[in-house]
Amino acid sequence: xxxxxxxxxxxGYNALSFxxxxxxxxxxxxxxxxxxxTKGDLGAALAQRYTEDGxxxxxxxxxxxxxxxxxxxxxxxxxRAALVNENRMCLVGLMSAEHDDLPDEVRAxxxxxxxxxxxxxxxxxxxxxxxxxxEAIQHQALAIYAAIEGAQLVARGRGNIALFDQAVAAxxxxxxxx
Length: 178
Hints:
The protein is built from nine helices and no strands. By secondary structure, it is mainly alpha-helical. Helix 5 (about 70-85) runs parallel beside helix 8 (about 135-160). GO terms for molecular function: DNA binding.
């Protein structure tokens, strides 16, 4: 699973290969097929675990952060860390770009990841003392998720982490991010 995750984070879902994973971990591709009969099964499992890892990270952020700003900074830090780690992308961000090529079970997990992120961001944003409606908070949460994913994509494409930091600072200055 770790090798498959790194493969997708580096090159996208279409580059996911049972043969290459087998070579990397020293097993036959048939052994991998025993656990994941199809590429879609493997892709869905990767996205599911990635979402679960994200939920655990979000719980840790809430447990250790006192303010909304600290939570948002830690959230952005997760995406920044992928860039620091060999200029990788969010696994689901790359899968989302390949949406039309994904099997239904992978699309479902991609959509779940996005929903989990937006729900968590909305929960964090709801901690502010604001008169914003629940719907407005949901919209801002979706905008923050999309903005952070976009900042990561631009920074990766340019091979320049400073662009990620600049984008996040610009989002904050514009009022998108608290």
